[in-house]
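Researcher: Here's my situation. A collaborator sent me these components and asked whether they could plausibly form a single complex. I don't have experimental data yet, so a predicted model of the whole assembly would be a useful starting point for our discussion.
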Amino acid sequence: MKNLVLGNEALAQGAIDAGLSGVYAYPGTPSTEITEYIQKSKIAKELGIHSTWSVNEKTAMESALGMSYSGKRSMAVMKHVGLNVASDVFMNMAVSGINGGLVVVVADDPSMHSSQNEQDSRFYGKFAMVPILEPSNQQDAYNIMHYAFDLSEELKLPILVRLVTRLSHSRSGVTFKERRNQNAIQLPVNTKRFALIPAYAKEQYKSLVGKKSSLLQSSEKSQLNKLTLSEDKSLGIIACGIAYNYVMENIGENQEFYSILKISQYPIPKAKAKELYDHCDEILVVEEGYPLVEELLHNYFDEDSKIIGKLSGILPFTGELNPNIVGKAAGFFQVNKKNISDIVIGRPPQLCEGCGHTDLFKAINELIPEIGEKKVFGDIGCYALGVLPPLNTINTLIDMGASITMAKGAADAGLENAIAIIGDSTFTHSGMTGLLDAVYENTPITVIISDNSTVAMTGAQDSAALGRLKNICLGIGVDPEHLKMMVPLKKNHMNNIELIREEIKYKGVSVIISQRPCVRLSREKKEEIKQKITSLN
Amino acid sequence: MKTNIILSGVGGQGILTIAAVLDTAALSKNLFVKQSEVHGMSQRGGAVQSHVRISDKEIYSDLIPLGKADMILSVEPMELLRYIPYLKNNGWLITDSKTFENIVKYPEKHELFKQIKSHDHHIIINATDIAKKMGNSKVANMVLLGAASSLISLSEESMLQAIKKLFKHKSDKIINLNLEAFETGKQLAKDFTEFVY
């Protein structure tokens, strides 16, 4: 019997079977289950594969590079916006190149099911000039990892594997293959290329640019890029990654009537694309995310303006694709859909009953009349739901860590009573450096760390902040007089309001750690947290 | 053979267990399966759905196209109506009658059930209350799956085996309760004539 796995899990097993020695990651929907699968895998444990969470995506990718430097195969995993955080090392390790195979797996979230934007990670791959692989189904996600690691070692470059929510979070039956052994430690022959002082970096950058033709050649001959030409020349379709499924769903058994180029490896196989272009009267480009392929093909050879897709407007620019959108664009018959009844109303997500964030927000809300509206800077996590009614506490949400730094900038502008709300794990991910900025200038802001002792939104992963928040803040230089603890519970409501009010009054940096474990955690887990906090303080 | 089922409910109501039974049963018969699900933010008390596709041929899309679902199986009645655009003509609607009202302005219930009943092929049962009487409201999902079972082109035996497999690490009591819930649901669907609110 085949193995019933999510796209994410298929990819994780593929990595294990391709000789992985370590995965480095920070949780983020829709990528989280990749690392969790390896953490739970018995064979990964026996093989000693590293899988502990990193503090953020940058530290994760740098550690993956360190493992690769030592000769072993490593993987860095993140959601699309996580790659922004790790982009510094990502861009530079394309220049240095890698030693042991290194695969960066990024899960994009078109339609923003659990994200703040729809950025298309393929652009990062193109930007860094590294190969990109884009599986279209679960078996592909498994198979592609063997290929990715081999290709990485062959080209001495990191490989970007791009997933999207619908593949990450969809299950199917997958066949696993034999497992390859891990690499032994083997340091680079020449370490110069990893030391990017300008003199060496210039050489390395030339060498990266010089690899362009090998990358293209690899794409042209890749099994992942399949061109099928049919006699009917009216419409040719270029289908990338998961978009291929939506095309095939519509075509069904009439495959012989369509000319299709399936793309799952980039750079775009130019020759194959040109062959399709010359063969057909019109070319529909179907890709999830931004119109990367469509735009490039326009630039390469669309003198006759016969390429259609997101740029031409036949496919929507925003939101994810589905079989109906693609079917309509390709001219397939669409069933007349029934409408949703007017009585059906939205059911947005909300904070769980008894959640500590709610008690914190209620306390802050009581203070809004005296401190003024629109002064609460928020961050990424469950507590982002405090943006919505009925709480309406939080005014901003931009990226991991921006609460503290935006509050600081606003205070620098002269805004009084600026408050930053940030979760425990988000604080250690990207909040600590911003707090140091504020401490350095003793900026008058109140930072509230809403500490539920877990990475709750993504399913309660361990938080590196656990038990360390107080010491971190003191270490950064927060005045002990203005580092306060509170427990967000109904019975403490009046005291908590008073405590927050006092710290807002203080014209310098105050930090309030509002601490109560996530209500979703089991009793055993809560007990474990309590002990850890005690032992570290 | 090709079956498309939309499972719907509110985050935390256990639709993924239903999905897991269907997937496991289908794979055990060497059929192709695709099943998309929702993780992340929506799981916090928001609307959730899962698309389950089973076929004897390769399945491409992880999402069911509009108008192509053979059945919507919902653990919450308003959530059932949310996915009506996916239902094919004469497709089946199966739902728990128990509402989950964590939002203001929940629709008026008489109208809600009237609209569900306007579809010829529907089964509405009070699965949550029945499950509670059986000793655990959590098995409401198995009551509903049992109610839907005769309308799904998978053998009953394969679904029962799948339940046993999925709960194999639980006590015999839990396994039997789930099997019993399935059986009860099957019987209720057989006897179903009309739901009166």
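Model: Some features of this prediction you could bring to your collaborator: The CA atoms of residues 21 and 49 of chain A lie 5 Å apart. Chain A touches chain B through 50 residues (CB under 8 Å).
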